[in-house]
Amino acid sequence: MVSYVLFLALVKKEQEARQKERARSLNNLKEGSVVQQIQLDELLETKAPDWLTLLTEQELSMPIVLKHGFADLKQHDIQEIVEAVIMEQHTQKEYH
Q: pLDDT per residue over 65-85, tens digit each?
């Protein structure tokens, strides 16, 4: 029982740390830096949350680079990013 409670506390602490990091990343993104790196799930959470359920955890955790910042992204830009991530994940798999 103690190890389970300890595990839950560690999970909660990790989630809080990740949320703080996301908040920092999103604040930096909103400031309009020229080149920005962000995980796909962070982008989708703010710009297209309905799409989160369509992708795997591996795809959602993929880092992406935004050349012209976060604020000016349009829906078709996000669609192109998601398509590229899916294609990248499928090209990495080896079939036997």
A: 887 777 778 899 999 999 999
Element counts in the chain: helices (H) and strands (E): 4, 2
**Rg over CA atoms, the chain:** 16
Q: What is the pTM of this model?
A: 0.59
- Rounded to 10 degrees, the C-alpha dihedral 71/40/64/74 comes to -30
Residue 68 and residue 34 in contact, taking contact as beta carbons nearer than 8 Å:
yes
The two structure tokens encoding residue 31: 């400031």
68-28-72 Cα angle (round to 5): 30
Tokens of 33: 């830096």
